[in-house]
Amino acid sequence: MSSKKPHINLVVIGHVDHGKSTTMGHLLYLLGQVDDRKMKEIEEMAKKMGKETWKWAWILDKYKEERERGLTIDLAYLKFESKKYSFTLIDAPGHRDFVKNMITGASQADAALLVVSAKTGEYEAGVSAAGQTREHIFLAKTMGINQLVVAINKMDEVNWSKERYEEVKAGVQKLLRMVGYDISKVPFVPISGFTGDNLVEKSSNMPWYDGPTLVEALDMFEEPPRPIDKPLRIPIQDVYSITGVGTVPVGRVETGVLKVGDVVVFMPANKSGEVRSIETHHTRIERAVPGDNIGFNVKGVARHEIRRGDVAGHTTNPPTVADEFVGRIIVLYHPTAIAPGYTPVLHVHTATSPVRFLEIEKKLDPRTGATIEEKPAYIKQGDVAIVKFKPLKPVVIEKYSDFPPLGRFAMRDSGRTVAAGVVIDLKKAEIK
Ligand code: GDP
C-alpha cells in the first residue's frame, strides 16, 4: 500500500478481553483491508470450531501468524487507511509484551486507541486497582502518547444503554484527568466491535449518540509534528571509508534537515567537517529530511575518529552529551530489587554505555502517577520511578520533550531488558 496520506503509528490498549482484537479486525474488514479469500478462510475455520464470535479477532491473528511464518515479509505491521491518515497498527493488540514493545521498540506510537468494555463487571475489573485500563492509561501518558481516542465497547451487551455509556465514560475521564490528559480533546465513541456498530457507519441502535464513528474519531488526531523544524540529529549506525570518496557515516535523520555544504559535528567525538555529498539508496540527494536513511561524505573527519553511537548535528546546535540525566522509568524485569549503585547497560538511539543508578528520587503510583515514596531505598519489577542516572561513558542523550527519538531508552542486563523510560531532565557534560 503506497499512500501519500500523513502517517500515524497507532497502539491499541486496554484490559484483556475488552475487545481490542475484535474491534480492530472488524474495522480492518469494514475498511476493505482484508481480502475476500482470507476472510472466507477465517469464517470457515470459525464455523468449524463453533467459535463464530471469534472471527474478527482472528483476522489479526491470521496476519500475525503469517508474519511469524514469514509469508508476508513486507507486512511488518498492520496498516489501514482512513480518509485522512495512513495508520500503522503497532504490535498486535492483546499481545502480552506490548508494554515492553511500546517502550523499547523502534516503533514509537504517535497515538493510542483505548478500548474499554461496558459489559457489567468487565469495565469495573479494568479500572480496579490491578486493572489494565488504569495501567495502560498511565503507561501511555508516561511514554509521551498525548493523543487518545476511547472506544466504549460491547454496547450490544448492555442494551445499547446511554446511561451505562455515560457511566463508563465518566469513570474513564476521571482516570485520564488524573494522569494529566486534557479530556476535552479525547473523543469517546460507543461501539460494538462484534456487531460493527459505530465503527465506520453510524449505529441505528444508538440514536442518542451524535458524535463521530470510530474511524471518524481516529481522523480527529492531529498530524504528528514533522521534526523538520528541529535542530539536526543523525544517530550514526556505521562508518565507512570508501576509496575515492572518503569517510561516509551512515544513519537515519531523526530530526532537522541535512544539506550538502553543511558543517556538521559528531558528538561525543567532537569532530567536525563539511558535508560533500548525501546518498540514499544509491541516489544522490541535495538534502535529507527526517526518516531518510542516508550515507554522507564528510570532509575533514577520519573514519577512526567517529563511530556507531555518535550523533551528528550542526555545529551551531551540537547534540547534547549528558553528564547525568533524570529518567522516568518502569522496571520491566528484575529478579530481586534495584538500589542506587546498580549499573546495567543503557541503550539509547544507536549508542550503548554502562549507566549507574545514582539516586532513586521518587517512586510513583503506576496507576495514577502520584508520588508514593520520596527517595525509596530500592525499586522492584513493576515499579515506576524517577531516577537520576550517570552514564559511565560520554554519550549523546536529549530530553524526550526536545527530541523524542534521542530521549527514549532501555536498560539491559544479562540479555534482558530491565527497565525502559524517557529522559525528563539532564545535565550537560563539559566537552573539551
Ligand atoms: P482483547 O483481549 O481485548 O483483544 O479482546 P478480544 O477481541 O479477543 O475479545 C474478547 C472477547 O470479547 C471475545 O470473546 C470477543 O468475541 C468478545 N467481544 C469483543 N468485542 C465484543 C463486542 O463488541 N460485543 C460482544 N458481545 N462481545 C465482544
Give the tally of structural domains.
Answer: 3
- The global form is globular
Strand content: 25-35%
The order of strands across the largest sheet is 2-3-1-4-5-6
The biggest beta sheet is recorded as: 6 strands, mixed
Radius of gyration: 24 Å
How would you explain this protein's 3D organization?
- This protein is α+β, with helices and mostly antiparallel strands and 432 residues long.
- The chain folds into three domains: 7-218, 3-Layer(aba) Sandwich (Rossmann fold); 234-314, Elongation Factor Tu (Ef-tu), domain 3; 322-428, Translation factors (Elongation Factor Tu (Ef-tu), domain 3), CATH 2.40.30.
- It has eight helices and 22 strands.
- Strands 2-3-1-4-5-6 form a six-stranded mixed sheet, sandwiched between helices. A six-stranded antiparallel β-barrel has the order 7-8-14-11-10-15.
- Strand 2 (78-81) and strand 3 (86-89) form a beta hairpin.
- Helix 1 (20-30) packs across helix 3 (55-68), helix 2 (36-48) packs across helix 3 and helix 6 (132-142) crosses helix 7 (162-179).
- The longest helix has 18 residues, at 162-179.
- It is globular.
- The termini are far apart.
- 43% of the residues are buried.
- Residues 70-76 and 103-107 have low confidence and may be disordered.
